[in-house]
Amino acid sequence: MIKPVRPFPALLLERDSERVLVVADLHIGWEAALADKGVHVPSQTPKILDKMLQLIKSCKPTSMVFLGDVKHAIMKVAMGEWRDIPDFFETISKEVSKIQVIPGNHDGNLEPLLPKTVEILSSKGAVFWDVGVFHGHAWPTPEVLGCRNLVTAHVHPMVAFRDPMGFRITRQVWVKATCDSAKLAEALLKHMHIKVGTNLTSLLKQSFGVTLKSSSKFLIMPSFNEFLGGQTINKRKLGIKSRSRTFIGPVLRCGSIDIDNAEAYLLDGTFVGNVEQLRSLVKS
Ligand SMILES: [Mn+2]
What we know:
- By secondary structure, this protein is of the alpha/beta class.
- The protein has seven helices and 14 strands.
- The protein has helices at residues 30-35, 45-59, 79-95, 181-191, 200-208, 250-253, 275-278, and strands spanning 2-4, 11-15, 18-23, 63-66, 98-101, 119-120, 126-128, 131-133, 149-152, 158-162, 168-180, 215-220, 263-266, 271-274.
- α2 packs parallel to α3.
- The protein is globular, with a radius of gyration of 19 Å.
- The structure holds manganese (II) ion.
């Protein structure tokens, strides 16, 4: 079972008595980056922590996975993060005994900030039953290719609307798409410099023990931190051919994800349309 926890930007994976709660893109310390530019916003971490505690209370997970970009400052550790990140994880650890982090592109030097009990997994993602999760800034492992469901984050997906007055508003969304598994596998193997012959299926089986599905479901998670900007998925700027190139991250760019027919859902579960329809709502 895989389901978004409405109205939170969080996903619950369930099997038997196990309940794995997945959240992504907290970007703790984003306000510290503003201070470098002379804009002083008080720490927003208590708000993020409050929301997280509410979420944990409502779905009682047996473990948690942080799907990348726990912190904001990319390589260095900003002043606020020295205090906020350890405090944050100490508090969460009291509620959930097993916590795992899959590092994203913002998570350089994260390890010294985490309590010893927090486990850091590979930045190439992990597999939970039939669900492969990876942050999205880098290629996942071949093992995730055999999963029926792929879950990624990183782009902080948004839909832009134009109201009758002409103002542009954006809302965070979940994006649900179909992935052409063979096309994705070919792109990943090419990246790994593995020559793909005529039989992709047996190559994957022999080399990685992966059984390829004809297609898989592909879900892009909204960021847990609601103060962030994100990628507007219904932009109309570029021609059809280069559309997938406008996305960030190698998997979205390789053309294996059917973005045009992808469905967008608000955090409360409201279906707002597919990406192709939504493109008519914005001018650029
Ligand atoms: Mn990221």
